[in-house]
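Milestone M4 deliverable, item 7.
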Amino acid sequence: MKSIKIFVALLAISISVAKAQFVKAELQVSGLTCSMCSKATEKSLRTLPFIGDIKTDLNRNLFTVTFKNTSPVDFEQMSKKVQGAGFSINQLKAFVDFDKLKVTNNKFNYSGDTFHILNAPAKSLDGEVAITVVNKGFAPAATVKKYSPAMESKSGNGKSYHVVI
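Output delivered:
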């Protein structure tokens, strides 16, 4: 009986973590030169279990990715899939539902990863808010350089992301 209670508690925790704090993302990819390039990247991204739908804007090299609310989002996996297709991420803007997240000291945790808000607003964050990841590999070099003095080192067991609003 005790093991059933533990199992139910762990299941409830994992379901609440997986619920969609991240709703969607706009992923700008560098190096795309034709529709075949974007199709290869889209096909690679669609293999990830947390991707629900992808819409492509070839004029801006932009993928609008909608996430499933049943699996936690992993930005590193997205980056690996884009790189595996032969391209790189130029910008990653994610839309976060802050009604489902707790922000403390300009940080929030999601699925074991820590997100540091570098330019946190004075007001509290409510509803869906766009954040832009400024880590190397997710932003142009000039953007990474601009925010590097404010970036903290990796903390905890998960990945550490630096974001701006």
